[in-house]
Specification:
Oligomer: single chain
Shape: globular
CATH superfamily of the largest domain: Thiamin diphosphate (ThDP)-binding fold, Pyr/PP domains
Strand order of the largest sheet: 2-1-3-4-6-5
Strand content: 15-25%
Structural class: alpha/beta
Number of domains: 3
Largest sheet: 6 strands, parallel
Length: about 550
């Protein structure tokens, strides 16, 4: 960089251009930009790179979850640029989710220079360590100085590598960059980069061998959650393990929650060893049975941090299971017993379905999983009941399935769906309250990236999961409805149309299938409102299904 430059505006423009040059060399492909003045140097530097896909979205909270969706879909860090003040605070929820679900984000917040802090300058808050320990790295280099030009590329590299998870699990990083006015200028020569391609472009964490674990002949139950790849599940299955997975798992056994509600079945499948990988399934029934079994529990950390809120894990080993490890071969008859039981339940469920069947929430979940597999389109599942219905009642997932299971909130799920679908195709399943909570995501839809997205909304007129909780029966119905169920009168298909999208309704399985195919066959966002029974009927229907599964399994076992 030329040392004769004196203009602070030129220096900071060169600083921002250097950051994006280094990130592009490392493999950055997507940048989400929220309009703002103070962030001008970052926004302009990103837009000067023709190889980057820019997504401009006006609501920072929605934009953050859109970026999260893009990171899930691309499997690499995504940058999000926001201006100073409350704009940066709006990203707090997505940083929390990215932290707990190990999703790589480069959070780039602009800030006022030091002289504007503490004097009540507009749009100025304390942004230092705004996200606390939730970020893998926080950097605040101050206003760019020409004599510090040699530090700019290392700064960008540190942020990129920590987001990727080189030194710790992948997750969000935060750069808080101060800029002075004037905010527009053209960059000059950038500090030199390393010769050749970036050594970090295709970073993959090295995989260590599983340390001294011998399970030969044992009944092994693997419980897998978010962060576990399809190939890892396949290795576990090949080793003769019974694999139970959350909604995002591909290739794991289905219907384990209703099966484990039957004490006879739970007694028949007591394992010798429980192996834990990644996050937790949503099933409390599974967690309770593992506690009751009191068997050895081992965590394998090769898929990222292992969730263990019950403190049942007694050993942690490095790496992931591999099918060619003879000492990891489990009792294949145990896995076969599980598989036969789940196949029996799946066959019974399929026999009861036809296109004229009125929709229920489990039926909607099954239809979305089937559509994802048939059309080879990723599916994003909302929190509360959708993620549980997919985990408990759908067949094994055959294509990429995502859920914001880090913090388990309903924040920004619509925007996450749009982020996954942008530039391609995507499916989403949410409840009506989740859609309304993130209705601002409909403002920009898929944005300039285009693509086709079908968002299916299970409209049970309120927060359905609360009807399964003690609150539903421990207080007068009027109070429960007001404080917890919170039904809203909005026609969600009309809401979608008001934002310029397509709004459809479906009441039967055939209508839902046709609406999904229609939406995937045309550009833009299609919102399909699935008319499902009331929340009270949904509770009764789940209870009836659980009884039927018990009878189905026991009849086949006789």
């Amino acid at each position: 960089m030329q040392q004769s430059v004196t203009s602070p505006s030129v220096v900071q423009a060169t600083f921002a251009a250097t950051l994006f040059d280094e990130w592009c060399r490392s493999g950055l492909t997507d940048v989400v930009i929220c309009p703002g003045s103070r962030s001008t140097p970052l926004a302009v530097a990103a837009s000067d790179r023709p190889e980057l896909r820019l997504h401009v979205r006006i609501d920072e909270r929605s934009a953050g979850f859109f970026a999260l969706g893009r990171s899930l879909a691309t499997k690499r860090p995504v940058a999000i640029v926001v201006t100073s003040g409350t704009a940066a605070a709006e990203l707090h929820a997505v940083v929390a989710e990215a932290d707990l679900s190990n999703v790589a984000l480069l959070v780039l917040s602009a800030d006022r220079p030091p002289e504007l802090h503490g004097v009540r300058a507009p749009q100025t808050i304390d942004q230092r360590h705004l996200y606390g320990a939730m970020v893998r790295r926080f950097e605040e280099p101050g206003v760019a100085r020409p004599e510090a030009a040699s530090t700019w590329r290392p700064l960008a590299s540190r942020l990129w590598l920590d987001a990727l998870g080189v030194t710790s699990p992948a997750g969000p990083v935060h750069l808080n960059a101060a800029f002075v006015e004037p905010l527009t200028a053209s960059p000059i020569d950038l500090p030199p980069a390393r010769a050749g391609a970036s050594p970090w472009r295709e970073h993959h964490q090295s995989q260590k061998a599983v340390a001294d674990l011998d399970v030969r002949g044992q009944r092994v139950l693997a419980v897998v959650g978010s962060g576990v790849e399809e190939a890892t599940v396949a290795h576990c299955v090949a080793l003769g393990w019974a694999v139970l997975g959350d909604a995002t798992a591909q290739g794991s056994l289905a219907y384990f929650d209703p099966l484990l509600r039957d004490e006879r079945f739970a007694t028949a499948v007591v394992p010798d060893l429980v192996v834990r990988l990644g996050g937790l399934p949503a099933s409390k029934v599974l967690r309770e049975q593992v506690r009751r079994w009191q068997v050895r529990a081992v965590a394998m950390n090769g898929a990222g941090p292992v969730a263990d809120p019950d403190g049942l894990v007694s050993e942690v080993v490095e790496g992931l299971p591999r099918r060619d490890e003879a000492r990891l071969q489990g009792d294949a008859t145990y896995a076969a017993f599980w598989r036969e039981a789940t196949d029996r339940v799946g066959a019974w469920l399929e026999q009861s379905e036809n296109d004229d069947v009125w929709l229920s929430e489990p039926t909607v979940a099954r239809a979305l999983v089937a559509a994802s597999a048939q059309h080879q389109v990723p599916l994003v599942v909302g929190s509360s009941m959708p993620v549980r219905d997919v985990e408990w009642w759908s067949p094994p997932r055959q294509f990429a399935t995502y859920a914001n299971r880090g913090a388990n909130g309903i924040d920004g799920v619509v925007s996450t769906v749009l982020g996954v679908a942008a530039g391609s195709q995507g499916l989403g399943l949410v409840g009506d309250i989740t859609m309304l909570h993130d209705v601002s995501g409909l403002v920009d839809g898929l944005g300039d990236a285009g693509g086709s997205c079908v968002l299916v909304v299970a409209d049970n007129r309120g927060g359905g999961i609360f009807s399964f909780l003690p609150q539903a029966t421990s207080m007068p119905p009027e109070r429960f409805e007001r404080l917890f169920a919170t039904p809203r009168p909005h026609d969600l298909a009309v809401v979608a149309r008001a934002f310029g999208h397509i709004g459809l309704t479906a009441a039967t399985r055939g209508e839902l299938r046709d609406a999904i195919e229609t939406g995937l066959g045309q550009p833009g966002l299609t919102v399909v409102v699935a008319r499902v029974p009331s929340r009270e009927e949904n509770v009764r229907y789940h209870e009836a299904l659980n009884r039927a599964v018990r009878e189905c399994w026991q009849a086949g076992d006789e």
